[in-house]
């Protein structure tokens, strides 16, 4: 399969898993805040992402089981995406302002299905991408994932006043159904060789690898500060007086293009200039971007300022995420790719979930301006474990992400 074919296939898969997450992380917080839910409540709603944090528990099962004739990862991805379509169609019959319990169950189900699809997709990506293709491959991954988030976060916020809840869910279902077509037609997945089906020991074996503790600390800390800051971004926009459609235009235009470009630029720079060098530079840019939201919080709230800052933050986040995900892919062994990558991704989700859950308490206690500045400080502190891990790599004491 050509490199372009691999990238196109992975783009469709990461687009599919980005749509439910964008709906949950972008659409839902703005809608809840507009309906008068407290900042603390909006922050705690991020705990509905629990399946993304716990997916490591069933990752070895996804890695081990599957139909070789159909494709070990493909035999998971296709049914999971079909179930996602069915769940969205069921949610379209729910009235979210009345039946909150059904909404919570539905969102949890969507997150479970998308996170399990992510295990199989990450395993497929590590398997089919050569090391030289991973920088650009992760740029495409982040770009497609963010495109899905924007489509079902930003664009749906714009269309929600006209479409209503039922049509929003049905549009998501139709879009995910379309992204299922490329993987349904895919026939190039390599079959595992003798002894290459990992068992449950793959989970424990990962934690025995040299340097695993410092590496997991590095990836946990790297995105925590950003999540802590932007967890209150959409409630902040609501409290500035923006409507759901306004926020949709802001994130669905500036955020959309900036995150796509940032991810692709980040992936290209990683391939050309090295993983760690890019990780450290992108971390500094990310901290500055988060801090910049203190400007409108302090009173400078012109429309062009909001667009400029949103563009800057999404661009920097795309670059930083592409660099981090490339290094996480480097640390995954091909025969246990789904498990290894999922363990790392779960650590990132746990850290970002913690940051998002606490963000509401910080914004309520200190105000938005201080909250964003505090988040920027956490971004700077968060890169220190990566610096420490790089020192271990240079001394040859670890095999994880050992690519300078």
Note the beta-strand portion. Answer: under 5%
- End-to-end Cα distance: 28 Å
Q: List low-pLDDT spans.
A: none
**Can you write the helix and strand succession as a string?**
HHHHHHHHHHHHHHHHH
Put simply, the count of helices is 17
Structural class: mainly alpha
Helix content: over 70%
Integer-rounded radius of gyration: 20 Å
Overall outline: globular
Instruction: Round the mean pLDDT to the nearest integer and report it.
Output: 83
Number of strands: 0
Query: What kind of sheet is the major sheet?
Result: none
GO cellular component, one term: membrane
Membrane topology: Multi-pass membrane protein
Protein name: MFS transporter
Subcellular location: Membrane
Structural overview:
With 404 residues, this protein is mostly helical. 78% of the residues lie in helices and 0% in strands. The chain has 17 helices and no strands. The protein has helices at residues 3-34, 39-44, 50-54, 59-64, 74-91, 100-128, 134-185, 201-207, 212-230, 233-239, 244-273, 275-292, 294-297, 303-330, 337-366, 368-382, 384-394. α11 (244-273) crosses α14. It starts with a helix and ends in a 10-residue tail after the last helix.
What's a quick, concise take on this entry?
The protein has helices at 3-34, 39-44, 50-54, 59-64, 74-91, 100-128, 134-185, 201-207, 212-230, 233-239, 244-273, 275-292, 294-297, 303-330, 337-366, 368-382, 384-394.
List the helices and strands and how they pair.
Layout: H1 3-34, H2 39-44, H3 50-54, H4 59-64, H5 74-91, H6 100-128, H7 134-185, H8 201-207, H9 212-230, H10 233-239, H11 244-273, H12 275-292, H13 294-297, H14 303-330, H15 337-366, H16 368-382, H17 384-394
Helix pairs in contact: 1-6, 1-7, 5-6, 5-7, 6-15, 7-11, 7-14, 9-12, 9-14, 9-15, 9-16, 9-17, 11-12, 11-14, 12-14, 12-16, 15-16
Transmembrane segments: 42-62, 74-94, 142-159, 215-237, 249-271, 278-298, 304-329, 341-362, 368-387
InterPro entries: AmpG_permease/AT-1 (IPR004752), MFS (IPR011701), MFS_dom (IPR020846), MFS_trans_sf (IPR036259)
Subcellular location: Membrane
């Amino acid at each position: 399969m050509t490199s372009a074919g691999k990238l196109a296939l992975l783009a469709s898969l990461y687009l599919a898993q980005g749509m439910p997450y964008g709906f949950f992380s972008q659409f839902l917080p703005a809608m809840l805040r507009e309906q008068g839910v407290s900042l603390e409540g909006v922050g705690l709603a991020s705990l509905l992402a629990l399946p993304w944090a716990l997916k490591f528990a069933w990752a070895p099962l996804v890695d081990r089981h599957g139909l070789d004739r159909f494709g070990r990862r493909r035999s998971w991805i296709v049914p999971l995406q079909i179930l996602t379509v069915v769940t969205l169609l069921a949610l379209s019959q729910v009235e979210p302002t009345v039946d909150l319990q059904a909404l919570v169950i539905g969102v949890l189900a969507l997150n479970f299905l998308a996170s399990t699809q992510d295990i199989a997709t990450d395993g497929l990506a590590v398997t089919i991408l050569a090391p030289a293709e991973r920088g650009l491959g992760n740029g495409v991954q982040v770009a497609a994932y963010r495109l899905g988030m924007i489509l079902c976060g930003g664009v749906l916020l714009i269309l929600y006043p006209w479409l209503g809840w039922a049509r929003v869910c049905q549009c998501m279902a139709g879009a995910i159904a379309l992204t299922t077509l490329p993987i349904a037609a895919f026939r190039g997945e390599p079959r595992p060789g003798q002894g290459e089906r990992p068992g449950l020991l793959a989970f424990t074996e990962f934690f025995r690898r040299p340097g695993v503790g410092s590496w997991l600390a590095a990836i946990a800390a790297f995105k925590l500060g950003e999540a802590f800051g932007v967890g209150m971004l959409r409630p902040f926009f609501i409290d500035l007086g923006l409507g759901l459609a306004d926020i949709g235009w802001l994130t669905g235009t500036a955020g959309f293009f900036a995150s796509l470009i940032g991810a692709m630029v980040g992936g290209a720079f990683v391939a050309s200039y090295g993983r760690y060098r890019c990780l450290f530079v992108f971390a500094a840019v990310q901290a500055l971007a988060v801090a910049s939201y203190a400007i409108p919080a302090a009173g400078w709230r012109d429309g062009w300022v909001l667009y400029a800052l949103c563009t800057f933050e999404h661009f920097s986040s795309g670059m930083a995420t592409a660099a981090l995900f490339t290094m996480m892919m480097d640390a995954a062994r091909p025969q246990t790719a789904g498990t290894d990558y999922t363990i790392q991704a779960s650590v990132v989700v746990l850290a970002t979930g913690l940051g998002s859950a606490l963000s509401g308490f910080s914004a309520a206690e200190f105000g938005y301006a201080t909250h964003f500045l505090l988040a920027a400080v956490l971004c700077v502190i968060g890169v220190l474990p990566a610096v420490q891990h790089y020192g271990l790599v240079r001394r040859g004491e670890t095999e994880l992400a050992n690519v300078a």
